[in-house]
Write a structure and sequence with these properties.
single chain, about 375 residues, Heat Shock Protein 90, five-stranded parallel sheet, five-stranded mixed sheet, about 20% strand, elongated
């Protein structure tokens, strides 16, 4: 292997005393290492940047810049920052050792040097570094594969949306035709078209949810802004996204007399309300009635919630609700479809916005799904 290989067993030995260099050079060479030598800190810095050894044995007391300063500069250089440095020194004071670790040293060897100790410490830190490099390499490979899988999933999702949109649009046209011309199709066929329409919409919602989940996971800089139109956001969800669910379940929703403002991102907040209200309509019992509210908390957050009057959720099941793709099974509820993906999106959104999401529920007492957002900071006069 050449000197530039990360597994080349190349060690840079830095010491101003030829006698020390000679002894260690021969010993390390005999043990299979390629040893490079520098007799002062400046030369060490140049050689380390050029060759990037696997490890540096660095004397502390040297003319010019000492070992502490040399180590500080090595760690400040991105090309050499990850190379482990072992100090060789006659200094035994705790203060000196602490200073060495503070500037980035990995270990200390006290003079007079014991060769077997040197070898043992070198092997230990080389193994640690190689494990770190392997983990980094695997992390980079995993990140690359995740990016490829994400790109593939997005492509597939968008490809599925086009034919689904055609199915939804044609189904809507056929239903309108049924309503305009009662003789065009009998009632049973019209109902089948309606089933196709609603199934297509649900599939579309799943695809949108997957795309949103991927988008939220990757988002870093979220444009938070004051949300002062929460009533409008909720009404938009009910009128545009959940209108059919309201009609199908004969559900009703009561709003608070006033809303508390908070910091957030309106498009994502809309997704939270859509998930919470949709679940409330599904599991809020016959003709579900949902109560929506908000309140300021003492910790500088605003709490929003959707309360239903359904069967409630057992304590052990609540812990799984916000886990992606989870499906709950218990004697009281059977299988809860749709909670896992939607609520995992809520969880990720709220974490990105600096809040918290959760549920309060008990069997027979209904459920209250809530989320918190930071309150709008007060402007100091």
């Amino acid at each position: 292997m050449n000197a530039l290989s990360p597994y080349s067993n190349t060690i840079l030995l830095v010491d101003d005393l030829p006698a020390n260099i000679s002894v260690l050079f021969d010993f390390l060479t005999d043990n299979g290492f390629k040893v490079l030598v520098a007799q002062d800190g400046l030369r060490a810095l140049k050689k380390a940047e050029l060759v990037k050894p696997e490890l540096i044995l660095l004397d502390v007391m040297m003319p010019g810049i000492d070992g502490f300063e040399t180590c500080t500069r090595l760690k400040a250089n991105v090309k050499t920052a990850d190379v482990p440095v072992i100090f060789m020194t006659a200094l035994t004071d705790t203060v000196d050792k602490v200073r060495g670790f503070a500037v980035g040293a990995a270990d200390y060897i006290t003079k007079p040097i014991q060769q077997e100790e040197v070898l043992a410490r070198i092997h230990t830190h080389l193994n640690i570094r190689r494990l770190q490099q392997e983990l980094q390499h695997r992390g980079e490979e995993l990140e690359k594969r995740n990016a490829e899988a994400d790109a593939f999933a997005r492509t597939v999702a968008h490809d599925l949306k086009n034919p689904l949109n055609l199915i939804v649009n044609y189904s809507e046209m056929m239903l309108e035709h049924c309503q305009d011309d009662k003789t065009a199709m009998n009632g049973e066929n019209c109902e089948l078209v309606n089933v196709i329409l609603q199934t297509g919409k649900r599939m579309n919602n799943i695809i949108n949810a997957l795309l949103l989940l991927a988008g939220v996971s990757k988002s870093k800089n979220i444009p938070r802004e004051p949300i002062t139109t929460m009533q409008t956001i909720v009404e938009q969800v009910l009128n545009e996204r959940l209108r059919y669910s309201l009609e199908e379940t004969k559900g009703t929703v009561s709003f608070p007399e006033s809303w508390q403002a908070a910091m957030g991102y309106a498009p994502w907040i809309e997704e939270i309300w859509s998930n919470y209200i949709s679940n409330g309509l599904k599991y809020g019992g016959a003709k579900p009635h949902l109560e929506i509210g908000s309140e300021v908390q003492r910790d500088g957050y605003v709490r929003f919630w959707v309360r239903d009057h359904g069967n409630g959720i057992a304590a052990e099941a609540q812990q799984q609700l916000f886990i992606p793709f989870s499906r709950l099974h218990n004697e009281q509820l059977g299988e809860i479809e749709g909670h896992g993906l939607g609520l995992s999106i809520v969880q990720q959104i709220i974490e990105k916005l600096g809040g918290h999401a959760g549920v309060e529920s008990s069997i027979g007492q209904g459920s209250c799904f809530y989320f918190t957002l930071p309150a709008i900071p007060e402007v100091k006069q």
